[in-house]
Design goal:
This protein is mainly alpha-helical. It has helices at residues 12-29, 33-41, 46-53, 61-67, 71-94. It has one domain (12-96). Helix content is 59%, strand content 0%.
């Protein structure tokens, strides 16, 4: 066994929370995924979420969260991370459990 190299992994909790909130904003406000991400960055708890995301990175988490205020950084973070997080969450939700194998049919009530 060797030393693990490369960027440390972000916890599933943080990845799925970010992706879930982006999808939730998409549906609630009828936004594109990118606009939903920008709306999420305005949330008051966004800095705490980013602190959890950047806690394993080199440098302080404060520097990273302060750097996230720039529009270019938000755009690059969306391009490099959020797209992947959304795809992971959507594929996980589609393949979850036995219920995903059957066709969903609306049943009408009989009088």
């Amino acid at each position: 066994m060797g030393i693990r190299r490369g960027q440390p992994k972000t916890s599933l909790f943080v990845r799925y929370n970010i992706a879930y909130k982006v999808i939730q904003y998409e549906k609630r406000y009828n936004l594109t995924p990118y606009k939903a991400w920008l709306k999420l960055t305005e949330h008051r708890a966004f800095n705490d979420l980013m602190r959890d995301h950047f806690k394993n990175k080199s440098g302080s988490a404060e520097w990273w969260t302060n750097n996230m205020k720039s529009p270019n950084v938000k755009k690059n973070f969306y391009k490099n991370h959020i797209k992947k997080f959304r795809k992971e969450l959507i594929s996980f939700r589609l393949t979850q459990g036995v219920g995903s194998l059957k066709n969903r049919v609306k049943k009408s009530r009989s009088p």
